[in-house]
Amino acid sequence: MSPRRNRPRGGGRPARRDGGPEGRHGLERTEEWRGEEWVVRQVTGQAAAKHYRCPGCDQEIPPGTAHVVAWQRDGRVEDRRHWHRACWNARDRRSARLQRSRNAPRY
């Protein structure tokens, strides 16, 4: 007897709700935050290949960690930011902490 097969036999990628392929990155959705529209994309751990710095906690997101990419609807590609999922969900509860080095002047 052969072991049970857990994967579907279709072999293709799952389709998005709008009919297009899901692709390397997850589905996009639009959220409103601070009066502006933000595009939010879930990134799987397999698709996360680089180190990123989370703007919510200022900690590193290592490769292979699932996270969220968010940018303003009218923003440029360079304005995309990679967030931990928990940091993105708690963005309204977090205060903006300015990170300085020891020798940086305090203005």
Fold topology:
Elements: E1 28-33, E2 36-43, E3 52-53, E4 60-61, E5 67-72, E6 81-83, H1 85-89
Antiparallel strand pairs: 1-2, 2-5, 3-4, 5-6
Globular, elongated, flat, extended or rod-shaped: what is the shape? extended
Integer average pLDDT: 77
Count of helical segments?
Answer: 1
Our Rg estimate from Cα atoms comes to 18 Å
By DSSP, the count of extended strands is: 6
Query: How is the main sheet built?
Result: 4 strands, antiparallel
Uncertain stretches of 5 or more adjacent residues:
15-23
Q: What are the secondary-structure elements, in order, as H or E?
A: EEEEEEH
Q: State the assembly state of the protein chains.
A: single chain
Helix/strand structural class = mainly beta
* Strand order in space, largest sheet: 1-2-5-6
Cα(first) to Cα(last) distance is: 73 Å
Percentage of residues in DSSP E strands: 25-35%
**Residues in helices, as a percent range:** under 10%
Organism: Streptomyces taklimakanensis
Protein name: ATP/GTP-binding protein
Question: Which features does this protein show?
Answer:
107 residues, mainly beta, four-stranded antiparallel β-sheet, two-stranded antiparallel ribbon, 1 helix, 5% helix, extended
